[in-house]
Amino acid sequence: MCVLHDSDEYGVCRWPLEELARAAGVSLKLARELVAKDVLKGADKNAADYIFTPRHAGKAGEPVVLVVAGAGPCWYCSRFVRDEYVRLRRGQSTRFSENNQPPKGGASGGPNPQPKDGDTGEPKYPPNQAPKQSPKPPIGGRHGDGPTSTSTSKNINTPIPPDGGSSSRKRSAISFPAFVAECRAAGVKPIPDDDGVFRYAEQAGIPHDFLRLQWLEFKDRYSLPDAKRYKAWATVFGKSVRGNWFKLWYATNEGTYALTTTGIQAENAHKEIA
Question: pLDDT-based confidence at 9, cuts 50/70/90?
Answer without folding.
Answer: confident
